[in-house]
Amino acid sequence: MIGGCRVVVVLPAYNAARTLERTLAELDPNVADDILLVDDGSNDATPALARRLGLQVIEHVINKGYGANQKTCYAAALALQADIVVMVHPDYQYSPRLMPCLAAMVASGEYDVVLASRILGSTAVRGGMPRYKYFANRGLTVVENILLGARLSEYHTGYRAYSRHVLKAIRLSELSDNFIFDNQILAQVQAAGFRIGEISCPTRYAADSSSIGPVDSVRYGIGVMATALAYRLHVAGIRRCRYLEPVPGQKQPSSHEASVADPPRRRG
User: Fold this and answer.
1) Where in the sequence is the domain holding 98, given as residue range(s)?
2) Is residue 263 part of a domain?
3) Into how many domains does the chain fold?
4) Do 106 and 113 meet the contact criterion of CB atoms below 8 Å apart?
5) How far apart are CA 192 and CA 22, in angstroms?
6) Residue 264 within a domain
């Protein structure tokens, strides 16, 4: 718990047995009220290891995709009465030590979503990010900022924190089951007017870190562009996009002041 808010850490896992214990060792148990691992049909011992380490585990019998994994993560976290949900990849690509920082920024009431950016600290390439991924990241981010009207340093990080009211106010079930999910959810957040903060995060690319290959990277890039264009057409009133519409009955911030007045639900 942090700032009176219940924090649930979710680990979307696929073949993470080699790095899971290292990741868990660096997660602050004084902040994480619950740690939940969702295994997406791994071929290794990830689920068994997670249970031995004392984690709550949900298993997909077959591999459903990265987006589908997150959908299960967030639904389960909300069922655990999370006020703040932090997604940490169990492949140790991002520093788990920063989890309390992301949670604290949401708990402050100043931000609804917080991203751990690999770009802000200028360490991505030194951390092993392939140069083609780095330059693709930078190029896509420029286009996305223009079309979404935002100023983020990157949209492609997998290390994120969300407030409960954000996850309840957006249409998670209508998003992709694959990697483009990460961009679609940010488009939803931006369309709804929620506030996005960023912190700098070192990254580590190694043989045991998960990463998509060149062909899937191209497909991802096309999906990113399609998402940004769909957003621009939606907000311009040219072509409505259902998944960018708010969930009926859920609070949407109409301004910074309105959103700050409704911080994450606090528990005594």
Assistant:
1) 7-249
2) no
3) 1
4) yes
5) 36
6) no
